[in-house]
Specification:
The complex is a heterotetramer, with two copies of chain A (about 325 residues) and two copies of chain B (about 260 residues). Chain A is of the alpha/beta class and about 325 residues long. Chain A is about 30% helix and about 20% strand. In chain A, helix 3 (about 120-130) packs parallel to helix 4 and helix 5 crosses helix 6. The longest helix of chain A has 15 residues, at about 285-300. Mean pLDDT of chain A is about 95; it is low at about 1-10. Chain B is α/β, with parallel strands linked by helices and about 260 residues long. Helices cover about 20% and strands about 35% of the residues of chain B. Chain B has helices at about 75-80, 115-125, 145-150, 170-180, 195-210; strands at about 5-15, 20-25, 40, 55, 60, 65-70, 90-95, 105-115, 130-135, 155-160, 165-170, 190-195, 215, 235, 240, 250. Chain B has a seven-stranded antiparallel sheet. A seven-stranded mixed sheet of chain B has the order 11-10-9-8-12-13-16, with helices on both faces. A two-stranded antiparallel ribbon of chain B has the order 14-15. In chain B, strand 12 (about 190-195), helix 5 and strand 13 (about 215) form a beta-alpha-beta unit. The radius of gyration of chain B is 18 Å and the shape is globular. Classes of the chains: A alpha/beta (about 325), B alpha/beta (about 260). The interface of A and B includes residues 38, 67, 68, 72 and 283 of A. The structure holds flavin-adenine dinucleotide (2 copies), flavin mononucleotide (2 copies) and FE2/S2 (inorganic) cluster (FES) (2 copies). One flavin-adenine dinucleotide binds near residues 50, 70, 75 and 76 of chain B.
Chain lengths: ~325, ~260, ~325, ~260
């Protein structure tokens, strides 16, 4: 008996799932996607947060934001549109009200944030930088730039460079730039963010879309357009992660329609060092854990002892 | 006792063209909901279309059996209506807040429009014989659960728009008459509302000058059901609130229409 | 009895479904999407081609093309990826072998075409321009540009301008520029194509995506990446058509995931003057006709006598 | 007589863990297929996941009844296996070319690997008692339709990889022995092949020096099924050909492996 236990334990020991994102070490590659996992506590009824590779919280801004008028959500074929409008409680409320809970768990906390101006990005990052037990920052650049007639930051290479560089200067936390997929050349945007000093890249954010109610002739979303997520976008996300992986040297965090371990492994094969689970949380609140266990099973069945064997393991010849 | 569980369809009874009664057997122990709370129900399938779970308020729910009354409205409920005995659904809940119970000196009035009765049924039952129930629908076959409601009600008022049963009027007309005739009790009435927006707005008009308190169960498209996605916002005087978590039940004066 | 017949006939007469695309008049707005309807004859067993608003054939190049290695098709959630690789019989074989059949029908024939160079575009357009019974040209600019290290023509505004202008100069047929959705700013590309002389725009072409087989660790498509089409992309397509409609004055032909009349009407409400049915043909070979009849039913039920009432009829206030 | 029709499931019989027999009743008159032709079968649903139809070769097909033998391979066939009696499928076909029939002096050899038998079954029947049938599978329960095949065959050779029935070897080993023992008849043999790629390649090796003619039914992912999308290309010595239209049956020497 004791031998069997020993064997089993060494089996586990022999299977290494840890990955590093800059100087941040994750015990496994399964993260949550910002905005789909609240501030963590919402899912703590279902998920043992200790088991997650990292928890990425809902995007924060300097001050609380109200968000967009309803309806904010509409289902589409194998996907959903959201126009939450970046509603959030603001960085200070987060630190005061939400962080103490999260801090109790043995999972790195990565804070997603954004701003209307480069200055706001800097200020939020500065505030977060000084807080204990925040392990990384993810900057969402798929949001409107007040100083450039509300054009999306992340769709202009120059602006992307400037905003990432500005944030880089004010924080020494691992900095992840989250790329917008609504661009012609995702590899270019990735290179720019890398050059500006990002430690890692995450992609994809949602693709802009809309839906119309033909009876009322109105957009189904209160704010007319929204972000498409879910299985529908997975092929696009995979392609973009692959292009970015081939272009940059910093780690890539892949997301977009990951519903199960199979999907997660696809992302790792095209080069994702870690993956984030988004819309899937809504379909199955245990999705993160199911995916983690599915990856373990896959590794065991395929005698893969180190998850790094999967990362970028795509065969193209 | 997990809030995420699977349940097997014991029966998926067709009540009429548009309405089914779903009887489920939970496969693991469940937490019993309060009146007003709801479940997010998924089809338990591998396919991704439709993708999201749908919210439903149980008529009743015990570890042995969950009863859901649903109207076939769009794709999700249509597919649901075709699911057979033995199929397994995956369910999240109970979720959201509950109808606050009336104080001893309150006179509860339950006002349901159409399928709104699904949410108010368990409340009516719990209020056994205390509540005046006002129940309106478009036509006879949309008035459901009548026998039970008669039992639960202190008095049951019925209307249909086509007059096929009950009075031919909006249920709000009956309510108005009732309130007028008993205006001296205004401060005792406590209203519980669930139904289509026009009905809710009409009732708001009726009660706003009378200082009658009312709770309303709101509806919004949902994704997570647990306050994580911020998708089910409803505008209130205190800013946006989430129907799935801070609701679905709100004091009517909080809602900004 | 005779009165009823008269009423019915006048009912039909009162319902106007015709739309104009430049100088081309279509009896109804239902077209086929290039590459999903072969050269028309493949579907003639199922569809009365006479009833179609227009037939858009598979994209042609100067010389026949072999296309890509298999697998060329893979299903994705609510969509499919294709990497046909622009296989086609070449413009001359088309004129000789396929056109005589198509000519027999009472539906305008629109020829989709492309080239590796601006010169090839010109040459194909010139050849097509002189042929009888071709009613319009649709130029596919979502294809690789040999003269710019195979970057996609339609992702660069300047190149788009030049190639559309070049073709414009050699043809007086109605010219439709078919836009690529793999761009940051679809409205800009639309404006450029309009400025260059296009009579109409069609969008969207497929979004680039991929899928991976985790057992073999290979891309599921022989050519690694492919174009995503089907219901999955509809929200993105609708948003793009809306943006373009608000930007240009020339007519817009909407497509991307149209499966039924509802979908088609959504596209018309956001501004599409005509719509094209693509992937839906594979799911239901009668899709074009079902959609046409569905639009008629919708108009009848909503007492819409002229389809133009729907075009751009979205309410946003 | 439309090539696009609906058919009701009369029976969806589980043969074993991985295989079902589907018996369909066409709802409108249909065109009868030749051996080798196939149908594109859709789930007849409104949902878009899975999206595409799947190709299947009928065991038999008449205006009264279509029989499909299928292996549960991925999502589509899994869903199909859960569909109940009475469900209605939508079907395109018959599609593609057919196996050319042997000349009078030919000796037909039918060689099926696994579910490849589905495509060769109707041919075997039509060749009544003329064909030597070689049928290999991984294990006993993957060998299907044995009684019928025994009836149709001049002689039936069986192998399984685990030896649970027939010889424990690849079916190609038996074929090789057969051909060796009758090498004087080489120019009379006409082979019909359907099965996994390794089997086909092994057979190609065996026959290429013997000048034996062979037809092979190819498989590729399909979307339209009628030659319109150019999706189901297979490489041949004459360039890419479409499996759905120019195939699925090709002379083996045409295929570039
Ligand atoms: C708290 C709550 C309790 C409810 N209880 C019941 C009940 O007991 N019985 C009952 O019949 N109905 C109930 N509903 C309404 C029910 O959820 C919708 O009718 C159902 O989601 C429609 O799904 P569908 O797929 O058929 O429609 P769809 O085709 O998806 O859409 C039809 C309409 O339903 C609405 N809808 C779609 N998805 C959602 C969603 N995820 N959340 C909310 N609305 C959505 C949309 O506004 C849409 O206009 C309740 C709703 C809420 C919010
Ligand atoms: C002409 C022809 C006749 C066939 N006849 C039969 C038959 O009689 N019985 C039988 O069991 N099988 C038959 N097949 C194979 C059958 O079509 C596939 O097993 C089926 O499509 C798998 O679908 P799935 O959804 O279960 O698998 P998926 O989950 O979609 O994929 C599993 C595998 O099936 C293949 N596949 C998926 N979609 C298609 C598609 N549209 N066309 C072709 N292959 C696809 C893929 O290569 C994939 O690797 C035939 C195939 C062809 C080409
Ligand atoms: C409801 C919702 C809210 C989101 N909010 C944010 C956010 O605040 N910040 C951010 O960077 N991304 C946000 N996202 C994008 C997700 O993090 C993720 O990039 C995207 O949804 C794709 O992954 P998925 O398909 O797995 O959901 C949000 C997505 C959804 C669905
Ligand atoms: C198999 C296939 C082949 C296609 N070939 C072409 C082509 O040759 N030229 C072109 O402009 N578009 C081509 N397209 C794009 C379609 O015309 C259409 O723009 C796209 O598929 C979106 O519409 P859908 O979602 O309705 O299919 C092709 C699409 C598919 C699926
Ligand atoms: S449904 Fe996600 S917050 Fe309410
Ligand atoms: S499946 Fe479309 S050409 Fe064969």
């Amino acid at each position: 008996m004791s031998e069997r236990v020993t064997l089993y334990a060494s089996d586990i020991l022999l299977m290494n799932l840890s990955v590093t994102i800059g100087k941040l070490k994750l015990k496994n590659p399964v993260m949550t996607a910002s905005g789909t996992f609240g501030y963590g506590e919402e899912y703590s009824d279902f998920v043992d947060l200790n088991r997650l590779g990292a928890i990425v919280v809902k995007g924060l801004s300097l001050l609380p934001r109200e968000g967009n008028p309803p309806p904010r959500i509409v289902e589409t074929p194998a996907g959903m549109l959201n126009s939450i409008g970046l509603q959030n409680i603001g960085v200070e409320n987060f630190i005061r009200e939400k962080l103490p809970f999260l801090r109790k768990f043995d999972a790195p906390i990565i804070v997603n944030f954004f701003g209307d101006t480069i200055g706001e990005y800097e200020e939020v990052a500065r505030k977060l930088n000084d807080v204990d037990s925040i392990h990384g920052l993810e900057m969402n650049i798929s949001c409107p730039n007040k100083e450039a007639s509300w054009k999306i930051f992340g769709t202009d290479p120059e602006v992307t460079f400037r905003v990432v560089q500005a944030v880089r200067k004010v924080t020494d936390l691992p900095l992840i730039a989250k790329l917008s997929p609504n661009v012609t050349d995702i590899a270019q945007m990735a290179r720019v963010a890398e050059d500006a000093g990002a430690d890692a890249l995450s992609l994809i954010n949602t693709l802009t879309g809309m839906a119309v109610d033909i009876k009322t002739r109105r957009p189904k979303l209160g704010k007319f357009t929204g972000g498409l997520s879910g299985p529908a976008i997975k092929p696009i996300a995979l392609r973009m992660v692959w292009e970015v992986y081939k272009t940059v040297r910093i780690p890539v965090i892949g997301m977009g329609g990951i519903m199960n371990a199979n999907d997660a492994i696809e992302f790792m094969l095209v080069g994702a060092r870690a993956i984030a689970v988004g819309t899937a949380n809504f379909i199955n609140p245990l999705a993160t854990i199911d995916i983690l266990e599915g990856i373990e099973t896959f590794m065991r069945e395929n005698k893969i002892t180190d998850i790094k064997e999967l990362i970028g393991g795509l065969k193209c010849h | 006792m997990s809030k995420y569980f699977r349940a097997r369809i014991k029966e998926n009874r067709k009540l009429n063209k548009d309405h089914n009664l779903l009887i489920l057997t939970p496969l693991t122990p469940i937490k019993e909901p309060e009146p007003g709370q709801f479940y997010m129900i998924g089809m338990g399938r591998e396919e991704y279309d439709p993708l999201l779970k749908r919210p439903f308020s149980p008529l009743s729910s015990s570890p042995e059996s969950i009863q859901i009354l649903y109207r076939i409205r769009g794709r999700g409920t249509l597919i649901m209506s075709n699911m057979g005995e033995g199929s397994v659904l995956d369910i999240l809940g109970p979720l959201g807040n509950a109808y606050p119970m009336p104080a001893r000196n309150h006179i509860p009035l339950v006002i349901a429009g159409g399928i709104g009765i699904a949410s108010l049924f368990s409340l009516s039952k719990k209020l056994s014989k205390r509540a005046y129930i006002f129940y309106g629908a478009r036509k006879r076959n949309e008035l459901l659960l009548m026998d039970e409601l008669k039992n639960f009600a202190k008095e049951l008022f019925i209307s249909t728009n086509d007059g096929s049963v009950g009075e031919k009027c909006d249920i709000t007309d009956i309510l108005k008459r009732f309130l007028n005739s008993q205006s001296y009790l205004s401060d005792k009435f406590l209203l519980y509302l669930c139904g289509p927006k026009p009905m809710l707005k009409a009732i708001l008009e009726i009660i706003k000058d009378r200082k009658i308190n009312a709770y309303v169960s709101m509806e919004e498209n949902m994704a997570c059901g647990i306050g994580a996605c911020l998708g089910c916002a409803v505008k209130t005087v205190k800013g946006y609130k989430m129907v799935c978590k801070e609701g679905p039940v709100f004091p009517i004066e909080e809602i900004v229409w």
